[in-house]
Amino acid sequence: MHPALLDVQTRIAKAARLANREPDATTLIAVSKNHPPEAIEPLLAANHRHFGENRVQEAQAKWPPLRERHPDVVLHLVGQLQSNKADDAVALFDVIHSVDRPSLVTALARAMDKSGKRPPCFIQVDIGEEPQKGGCAVADLPALLSAARDLPVIGLMCVPPADVEAAPYFALLAKLARDHGLAGLSMGMSDDFETAITLGATHVRVGSALFGARAQGGAA
Ligand SMILES: *Cc1c(COP(=O)(O)O)cnc(C)c1O
Residue 32 C-alpha to ligand 1 middle, in angstroms? Predict the structure, then answer.
């Protein structure tokens, strides 16, 4: 029993019902960045298996021991990725949500060829025109998708602007995905995952609603 997990799962199911979608059409990713293994263990004990981290180095330190005991964990990279960490990211993560520029596409393609491991990828879109958050400009999406045609791209991801209604941004991301024939939609965080689900999210990335507030200095 994990009360916070149960609460989030219940809210996911309710939002799915409202939108006439199956509750299991959306994967809940527990974003465990800045939280120690002791905070992750209760979720593993409650049989939760999808986790997200935003830094390669932090994940490298935390996850190998946890995975030894739970080999069925699915690890998602949700934070910005430097090209020089592409090898490490491909080795460690099962899904990469933050592919956002041609140089990173090249680095990931090379890392995948070298390792033979091909984790599914999302293209991150800078949906609110906030370049500091990463993501490719909406106008650059067609060119980036074409550059990434040799990567296993399964969908689009976004982090909309804080403190404004997220729904229009989610709707735009869903439209872009539809236009490009992509089924995956990684959108929605603790404050807005229900809205994201009603607009078609296939993956929601939830941190604080599951783990409580993060430690200081832990911005995305
Ligand atoms: C931290 C983070 C999340 C989770 O945010 P919460 O508001 O704590 O749910 C989701 N996505 C990304 C990219 C993040 O960095």
Answer: 9
pLDDT digits (tens, 9 = 90+) for 199-219: 999 999 999 999 987 555 444
Cα 174 from Cα 180, distance rounded (Å): 10
Cα(175) to centroid of ligand 1, in Å?
22
Shortest-distance Cα residue to atom 5 of ligand 1: 207
- Which is nearest to 205 in space by CA: 39, 84, 86, 74? 74
Task: Measure 114 CA to ligand 1 centroid, in angstroms.
Answer: 30
Per-position DSSP letters for 113-151, written without gaps between them: HHH-----EEEEB-TTS-GGG--B-GGGHHHHHHHTTTS
Tokens of 15: 């939002």
Full-model pTM: 0.96
Model confidence pLDDT, tens digit, residues 48-84: 999 999 999 999 999 999 999 999 999 999 999 999 9
> Burial of 67 by CB count in 10 Å (0-12 exposed, 13-18 middle, 19+ buried)?
middle
Question: What are 57's two structure tokens?
Answer: 């180095």
